[in-house]
Amino acid sequence: MNGHADALTAIYPLLSGLSPAARALIEKEGRMMEVPAGTHLFDEYQPCGGFPFVLEGQVKVAKSSANGRELPLYRVHAGETCVISSACLLGHIEYNAHAVAETPARLLVLPTALFDRLLSEPAFRTFVFSLFAERVAELMQLVEAIAFQRLDQRLASLLLGHGQTLHTTHQQLADELGSVREIVSRLLKSFAEQGLVALGRNQIDILDPAGLRALAAEGR
């Protein structure tokens, strides 16, 4: 009876306080989706089709410019929510970003009408707004970094926290920073000349993490 609801509360324990009636609605109207990596889950200017819960996998939410450049806004992992979807449903507006499954993913999608009904449930309403606030705080940090940090500081920060060796391309780093490959390549070459990193084919070795941390923290 409660397969969908049990799967949901196992990953999202904040929803364990849902009433039996709400659980029954989720079981009846919730839509389980399994998608391969690379699947576009929604695009800009589309009407919002429902509220997605990520049960497995990872989803990237990003904003694109007219010239095709992309700025990742955040990633949604299992147990997290998509603030863009929340905002669209609460404001009855179209998506203003797009989402792509970066890995194979399993999602439970609540139709718009069900989302609206569940907002009368205290447990669901508290869940939506508490995680909404967390995501907004993350987006404010991104805005602050873009507005007030130099690109070399943001790149230094991006390189940290992934171990001694990163298996990535200059283009992937540029995409993460909302920049272009040529600029990122020049900065990485400068980092290598300073002894901060060593560059290989689709690989970056961190030689001086303390130096990168100092660079990332400049001006803060």
From TrEMBL:
<keyword id="KW-0805">Transcription regulation</keyword>
<dbReference type="InterPro" id="IPR000595">
    <property type="entry name" value="cNMP-bd_dom"/>
</dbReference>
<feature type="domain" description="HTH crp-type">
    <location>
        <begin position="149"/>
        <end position="210"/>
    </location>
</feature>
<dbReference type="InterPro" id="IPR014710">
    <property type="entry name" value="RmlC-like_jellyroll"/>
</dbReference>
<dbReference type="Pfam" id="PF00027">
    <property type="entry name" value="cNMP_binding"/>
</dbReference>
<dbReference type="InterPro" id="IPR012318">
    <property type="entry name" value="HTH_CRP"/>
</dbReference>
<protein>
    <submittedName>
        <fullName>Bacterial regulatory protein, Crp</fullName>
    </submittedName>
</protein>
<dbReference type="InterPro" id="IPR050397">
    <property type="entry name" value="Env_Response_Regulators"/>
</dbReference>
<dbReference type="InterPro" id="IPR036388">
    <property type="entry name" value="WH-like_DNA-bd_sf"/>
</dbReference>
<dbReference type="Pfam" id="PF13545">
    <property type="entry name" value="HTH_Crp_2"/>
</dbReference>
<keyword id="KW-0238">DNA-binding</keyword>
<dbReference type="InterPro" id="IPR036390">
    <property type="entry name" value="WH_DNA-bd_sf"/>
</dbReference>
<dbReference type="GO" id="GO:0003700">
    <property type="term" value="F:DNA-binding transcription factor activity"/>
</dbReference>
<dbReference type="GO" id="GO:0003677">
    <property type="term" value="F:DNA binding"/>
</dbReference>
<keyword id="KW-0804">Transcription</keyword>
<dbReference type="InterPro" id="IPR018490">
    <property type="entry name" value="cNMP-bd_dom_sf"/>
</dbReference>
<feature type="domain" description="Cyclic nucleotide-binding">
    <location>
        <begin position="14"/>
        <end position="119"/>
    </location>
</feature>
<dbReference type="GO" id="GO:0005829">
    <property type="term" value="C:cytosol"/>
</dbReference>
